[in-house]
């Protein structure tokens, strides 16, 4: 039987599409992100199906459609093409795409289709890392270079929650004046940081790229590089509520790496999908 979000049958008029993207080719250290889409979908029926904050059921208001978990070719260009085709189909069906990675490189597949449809596409990037290397371990298309490739397409990016970088990336951000908010900025001056995020969201169509390692490893241990000092659940929800107020047109949730005997990160990822869908449902109901 096909795995679906919340274990529910696909809604015939679904406005949200879940796109499993089990890409794992360029992962450098701890392996396992290929299993994440399956594991996230598997834990999702254990969530409560009612959102206490918006007081609604997103599966009723918007409805979910879950694509089958695809067998991706072990070639980065071919794999990104497969992902990009599924995203294009989702946009044609007028559904909100939520990609479930997989390594961060899947974002490039998504953007390939999105930039054909949206002329003022912008990326809000939540991540402990900048992913701004020019190449990594000989690869131009890798989880460590994904934002550099997006930047080169001329698509505006704001990276939020950053707390570690390479010297190459340090020199790049100095040279280019790349837009970012360190995790430290959020903690030291939340109001000013929040305003910077809001100013970024005001114009254009926003795509959210969420690397699960933006969270503190204490609440998201199942990631490839569990960088200390990350975001909390409630900080994240404040940012997400803000993003949903503006023109959010799609998202991905990447780099979960399931840990045997500990489903906390997969559960968090499933909860994020449910929460964002609840906020989108609330907006849909009141518009
Ligand atoms: Mn990262």
UniProtKB/TrEMBL annotation:
The record's section on Gene3D superfamilies has:
Ureohydrolase domain
* Cofactor annotation remark: Binds 2 manganese ions per subunit.
Cofactors (names): Mn(2+)
Q: Which PROSITE patterns match?
A: ARGINASE_1, ARGINASE_2
UniProt: Mn(2+) binding residues:
104, 127, 129, 131, 211, 213
Matching entries from InterPro entries are given as: Agmatinase-rel, Ureohydrolase, Ureohydrolase_dom_sf, Ureohydrolase_Mn_BS
Family annotation (Pfam families): Arginase
Q: Which UniProt keywords apply?
A: Hydrolase, Manganese, Metal-binding
User: One of this protein's GO BP terms?
Assistant: putrescine biosynthetic process from arginine, via agmatine
GO molecular-function term, one example from the UniProt record: metal ion binding
Question: What family is reported?
Answer: Belongs to the arginase family. Agmatinase subfamily.
What is the name listed in the Swiss-Prot or TrEMBL entry for this protein? Agmatinase
Q: Which organism is it from?
A: Thermodesulfobacterium geofontis
Q: What taxonomic lineage is listed for the species of origin? A: Bacteria, Pseudomonadati, Thermodesulfobacteriota, Thermodesulfobacteria, Thermodesulfobacteriales
């Amino acid at each position: 039987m096909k795995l679906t979000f919340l274990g529910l049958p696909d809604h015939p008029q679904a406005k949200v599409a879940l796109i499993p993207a089990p890409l794992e080719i360029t992962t450098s250290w701890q392996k396992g992100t290929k299993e994440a889409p399956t594991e996230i979908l598997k834990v999702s029926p254990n969530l409560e199906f009612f959102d206490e904050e918006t007081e609604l059921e997103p599966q009723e208001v918007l409805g979910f459609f879950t694509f089958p978990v695809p067998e991706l070719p072990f070639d980065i260009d071919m794999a990104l093409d497969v992902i990009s085709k599924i995203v294009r189909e989702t946009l044609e069906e007028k559904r909100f795409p939520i990609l479930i990675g997989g390594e961060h490189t899947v974002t490039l597949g998504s953007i390939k289709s999105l930039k054909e449809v949206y002329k003022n596409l912008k990326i809000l990037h939540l991540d402990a890392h900048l992913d701004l290397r020019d190449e990594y371990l000989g690869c131009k298309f890798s989880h460590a270079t994904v934002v550099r490739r997006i930047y080169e397409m001329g698509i505006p990016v704001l990276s939020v929650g950053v707390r570690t970088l390479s010297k190459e990336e340090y020199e790049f951000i100095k040279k280019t004046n790349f837009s970012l908010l360190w995790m430290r900025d959020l903690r030291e001056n939340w109001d000013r940081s929040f305003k910077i995020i809001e100013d970024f969201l005001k114009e254009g169509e926003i795509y959210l790229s969420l690397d699960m390692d933006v969270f503190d490893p204490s609440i998201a241990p199942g990631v490839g590089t569990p960088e200390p000092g990350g975001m909390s659940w409630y900080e994240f929800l404040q940012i997400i509520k803000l993003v949903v107020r503006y023109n959010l047109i799609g998202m991905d949730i990447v780099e979960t790496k399931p840990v045997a005997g500990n489903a906390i990160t997969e559960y968090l990822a499933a909860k994020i999908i449910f929460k964002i869908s609840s906020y989108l449902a609330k907006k849909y109901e009141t518009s």
